[in-house]
Every structure is written in C-alpha cells, then in structure tokens.
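Section 3.1: Structural characterization of target chains.
Under the original work plan, the team committed to producing a structural model for every single-chain target entering the pipeline before any wet-lab resources were allocated. The record below documents one such target. The sequence was received from the expression subgroup and is listed exactly as submitted; it comprises 72 residues.
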Amino acid sequence: MKLNYHADTDSLYIEFSERPSVDSREISEGVVVDYDAQGRVVGIDIDNAGNKIDLERVLLSKLPGTVETEAA
C-alpha cells in the first residue's frame, strides 16, 4: 500500500495494488474508487483531501509487513 499526497491539487491517492485500474466509481463527492478487472479495489483518490481528512498525522498500527518512508 502506498499513500501519495499531491499538494498542488490537494489530492491523496491511496494505492492498494499496482494492478491496473479498469473501472472507477465516485462513491462520494470527490472520492473515487478504482477497481481492477476482477472487481478488487486497487486505489482510492480523494480530491480536496485537506478538507476531508486529517493529513497532519498518519498512524500505522500492527501491520504484518515492513513500513517504508520516502522523503517528499
């Protein structure tokens, strides 16, 4: 999973998989879910993220894998 924030557009993309998206559905105003060919969620795009979610803090708890960070 990868979180990508784009300050210039104030959008957050949460990538769950590197599989290609073949379908997208807006589930709420400015919130779009991307699906692969099997109907599995591959990502979520949140427009105007700063107004919809708290971007100041990210907490990862009890994840089974490794956690990596990438400088902005």
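Residues 16 and 27 are 17 Å apart (CA to CA).
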